[in-house]
Amino acid sequence: MQEVISQVLLPVVLAAIMLAMGLSLSLNDFKRVFLHPKVTLLGLILQLVLLPAIALIIAYSLSLSPIASSGLLLLALCPGGATSNLFSYLAKGNVALSVTLTAITSIFIPFSLPIIFSIYVEFLGRDQQVFVLPLVIVIKKLFVVTVMPILAGMLLRYRFKKTVLNYEKIIKRVAAGTMLTIVILLLLTNMKVVLEMATVNGIAVLSLCCFSLLITYGISTMILTSAKDIKTIAIEVGVQNAGTAMMVAFTIINQPQLAVIPLMYGLLMNIPVFIFVWWVQRK
Fold this sequence. Notes:
The chain is mainly alpha-helical. It is built from 14 helices and no strands.
């Protein structure tokens, strides 16, 4: 059962979510990168540079095991995904900016994730290296599951815009609900993950979410003036796509133990993110 979920359903659902994201995008969304370069560049730097650094600091500070620290970094190297777009909407942020940042980072991920992760594996040393990351294979598979569905969704929107606009919200909700179901099923077939939530690994997961939300919110407040953009960037950096990390662990490099941290994150991150959304709404 677990193999069917992780090897078949997870990649298919992840590709479906990326397709749904593509349905909400047009070329005009990417023009925003050039019209508002400061906002977009800040979001990308915080997502691709600061977040992995926060993950490594947490792993070092809590003395996580090589497997746990690798899982935390793997998670930090993933894009926001549909969940971050949803939370941006709930926080009354700039949803268009959120979707654009998610799309851009999703396009970068097939290249940045395996390269940075491989460097980290080398840094751990051969004596602690318990897995091997096939660089070319990871890039190809991530490209197929993330970038290609996004491009296909954009093409469908261009060709059948009226139909897509009519069903866009429904498709997004179904895709997000299906991913949540997959996470729950994986947790049910890996009950030891639930028990580990009360350990240092659970603290690491919550720390990653809390610190990334607060630090990026603080940095964005010093640089940007739009309240909508500030909370959107904080959510985009603070909410990761656990599904991508799980797919890499389960499907691409066949190391289920690396998926423990992303599985935990899939549930635990909702607590600080909902509190953050409530706080920025009141603020």
